[in-house]
Design goal:
Length: 465
């Protein structure tokens, strides 16, 4: 993994190239104070402070300074320095005035890439771009967020042939070993008996990709219990309701919820929040074989509800249902789940906004506020009870898919809601875990969406307990 700690260093007066940040309002006054040669160069490049992420190099003898246009020079976003970190020559830099604050995240992540499968004979990477900060106390937190985000990206980007349920289990064990957490894995007959929905979804896979429920426990038993659940479908063919090739192409990312859940658990353990953590990842491959579950099958869930399988491609909610019921058994005061659950959420909100559902108004407000403060927004969607009738089955307690093509992310969330009692606070993130188009600091591929917002809520709620 990228050595993020080496890219963000305390400012102790080291030599560094200054970065001047301007916006459309401040550029004119700043320009008046610059030497004539700077004004001429910027005019020749038509640099006017209004170009979003544009920047220019200002020669200084054998070295240079940098001027960059940002949206608000006095209110930096997480990503406003990312283009610089991607594009500047290697070396040491610092802001000419002020501190980078949360923009350190973009600086760090812009220098992370997933290149495990590139030939080493290609051109070498550019050297590190180091940023100095006068806020050394914030360095560790910035590095931790960058490492957690990189963990999500790397897991999601890994080809499904190299990351199945067993490899996802190993990823959990690796984090557990770092922090002295306990791991328990349920497979085979024990899984079939106790978690029939997880077993049914993963039943079509080969033995070496057998389904399992991965649990991690950490923390002081006297602290409040918080459960984090992540959908771990390591590849989703759609099952017998087979996806078309275009729909299957990115399904290595269908374990993105598990990646988010593991990264959130990592942040909790890294900061040693005073909570008792229970991480649950149902890990499966939704495959096609003679043992795959079928449309029309009825499976009795761990909770006891009979579920009619209307669509084998609505598998994520099934494995989450059994995992949520297990989480509930411990009586946590809060459950957060992440899942790449529905295309309907992307149709409604696009790729940048996770759909967030909650059975508590105050929790939803905390998440929305936290998302805005850390530039990791989520958008609350309604648990609209009248749509519950769309999940009716003629012969079972509930169907796993809606009888209507409308409100798909809402009906999926309503299905999950059946497995969380009203007296437990619950938030559900229907996240994309992917970027179709690159942005500064956010390359095309796997990405975290909702992770930092969720952790900010946990840190705010529990760090002062």
């Amino acid at each position: 993994m990228t050595d993020f700690a080496s890219l963000l260093v305390a400012d102790r007066g080291q030599a560094a190239r200054p970065i001047h940040l301007v916006d459309k309002d401040s550029f004119g006054e700043w320009l008046k104070r610059r030497p004539a040669e700077d004004r001429a160069l910027l005019d020749a490049h038509r640099f006017d402070g209004k170009q979003g992420f544009s920047f220019a190099i200002l020669p200084r003898g054998s070295d240079f300074e940098v001027v960059a246009a940002v949206r608000k020079a006095d209110e930096l976003s997480a990503w406003c320095l990312a283009k610089l970190a991607e594009s500047l020559p290697e070396g040491v830099y610092k802001l000419a005035s002020g501190e980078p604050g949360k923009a350190t995240l973009g600086w760090l992540l812009a220098q992370h890439s997933f290149d495990d499968f590139r030939l080493k004979k290609e051109e070498p990477k550019p050297g590190p771009r180091v940023l100095l900060t006068g806020e050394p106390a914030k360095i560790e937190s910035a590095v931790q967020f960058a490492e957690a985000t990189a963990l999500v990206r790397d897991l999601v980007n890994m080809p499904a042939g190299m990351l199945g349920p067993a490899e996802l289990e190993q990823a959990v064990r690796t984090e557990a070993n770092r922090f002295g957490a306990k791991v328990h894995v349920i497979t085979g007959q024990q899984l079939s008996d106790g978690y029939p929905l997880i077993a049914a979804v993963g039943g079509g896979a080969s033995k070496d990709r057998a389904p399992r429920l991965i649990e991690l426990e950490w923390g002081n038993p006297k602290d409040p219990l918080v459960a984090i659940v992540g959908k771990g479908v390591c590849f989703d063919s759609g099952g017998l309701d087979l996806k078309p090739a275009s729909g299957m192409r990115l399904m290595k990312k269908d374990m993105g919820g598990a990646a988010h859940a593991l990264a959130l658990a990592r942040l909790v353990m890294t900061e040693r929040l005073p909570i008792r953590l229970h991480l649950l990842i149902p890990a499966v491959e939704n495959a096609v074989s003679e043992s795959a579950y079928r449309p029309g099958d009825i499976v009795k869930s761990r909770k006891g509800l009979f579920v009619e399988i209307d669509n084998t491609d609505a598998e994520g909610r099934l494995i989450l249902a059994d995992a949520l019921d297990k989480a509930v058994a411990g009586k946590p005061e809060l459950i957060i789940d992440f899942a790449t659950l529905t295309g309907a959420a992307r149709v409604a909100l696009g790729p940048d906004l996770p759909a967030m559902f909650s059975n508590r108004d105050e929790l939803a407000s905390e998440i929305e506020s936290a998302g805005l403060s850390v530039d990791d927004p989520a958008w609350r969607m309604p648990l609209w009870e009248p749509y519950d009738e769309l999940l009716k089955s003629d012969i079972a307690d509930v169907a796993n898919a809606s009888s209507s093509p409308m409100a798909g992310c809402i009906t999926a969330a309503l299905f999950l809601k059946r497995f969380v009692p009203d007296d437990i606070a619950w938030a559900h993130f229907d996240t994309f875990a992917w970027r179709d188009q690159a942005k500064p600091g956010r390359p095309k591929g796997g990405d975290s969406l909702g992770l930092r917002a969720a952790f900010h809520v946990l840190r705010t709620r529990y760090s002062n307990n």
